[in-house]
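Look over this today:
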Amino acid sequence: MACLPVSAQDKQEAYLGTEVTRRKILIGEPFTLILKGSIPLKDFNGQLPPFPDTIPHFEILEAARLDTARSADRLLVTYTAKMTSFDSGHWVVPSMGFRVGKNVLRTDSIGMDVLTVALEGNDYRDIHEIVEVEAPPFNWKPWAAGALGTVLLALLIWYYLRNRKKKSPEPSLYDSKLSPFDQAMQGLKSIRESGHMGKGEPVAHYGGMYEVFRIYLIRKFNMPVMSDTTGEILARLQDGHLNREMLGKLAAVLRLSDAAKFAKYPSTQEEGMEAIGTLEEIIRTLNQQSS
């Protein structure tokens, strides 16, 4: 908790403090910000200090809840706000100032780390100074072998192109005769019926879900999301597409998908089926919102 210190000499003075339930969150993961204050009744003018409407880089998921308690000579005030962030990086909940009587009290700032999925096996090594290495004598044999291999490869490609049978072009996933919504629903149904989770194949299950969702966004909203990260996709849908509740559900599904694909998270079959149901709900919401 970050707050102004209270000594034996200033127990009668007002003080404020803030705390958070966690200092590190995954992108879209909720946490709670708590602001506590103690105001002498002699300084209380009948108006409680307001909680900020916005905090840079953070989203207030639920309006701050206010609780008060009164003792013989003090008013205790507690604001509790449920928040999250869709911007990855290190951000700071800034110092907050409140007027109490003739004085302005300020809380300390709090640093927060908003993380994407932490991948295993990322080893970081020290950087050493550059050391000059003597050039070895020229060896013509690898170059001759490479040139001969290139000629042989070119002959094989020419022979293949000359004698191959022309195949009928496969239909593109982006040029389906189905509507974007029907294609997405059909794709999720196929994944559900494939039984990947029951076969111990969570990567195929969640990878297929993610691809279906990307194709839907490309076809429905012309969003170039095929190479976007989870955070970038959430940012695109944050303004005018999904409300905070649905955006939070989508963040949870995409984080689970990233964890299964990249961090080898051992997702259960129940989680996999629930994730498909949630993604269907989100696509229906997007489809209705854009109709």
Observations:
- The longest strand covers residues 59-70.
- The helical segments are 140-163, 180-194, 202-221, 230-238, 244-262, 269-289.
